[in-house]
Known about the structure:
There is one protein chain. By secondary structure, the chain is of the alpha+beta class. It has a single domain, classed as Hotdog Thioesterase (Thiol Ester Dehydrase, Chain A), CATH 3.10.129.10. About 20% of the residues lie in helices and about 35% in strands. Strands 1, 2, 3, 4, 5, 6 and 7 form a seven-stranded antiparallel sheet that branches. A hairpin with a 5-residue loop joins strand 6 (about 135-145) and strand 7.
Amino acid sequence: MNDGGRPRSAAEAVERHRRVLAEGRHVFSGLRLQDVQVDGAELAVELELDETVANPTGALQGGLVATLADIVGGRLAMEGLDDHSFVVTADLTVHYVGPVRRGPAHAVGSVLRRGGRTVVTRVDVHDGRDGPLAAACQLAFTIVRPSGDGTASGGGT
Length: 157
């Protein structure tokens, strides 16, 4: 790391991020997320609903619905990348069609397109595993790969 605490290379940034996650210090560590098996799904994750993540009506905060979609889509986008590459969210569209009141928020994701520089995913969030659709989300991710000098190339966000 340089004197300002910022990583000097993409590889250093990826390693720091993995360490923060492993140590339970990342903001995501406070979310009660759990991978679940769903027939035919590439990835399904549930977020437990309680008063710490609910709005005044008792429904899951809309920003956390978007965050859940971003987590699921990002994990799918990362599949198959080398250890020094990562993805950044380039676009996130959420169509809210109903609340997540009963819970858990049940997110099912799939890859729509995987290219050399971008990955496009779809994530549907339901109110419970067998519940109604709460949000239909489409996300685009830019793949960031370290350049020959160790700096990142491919993403600017």
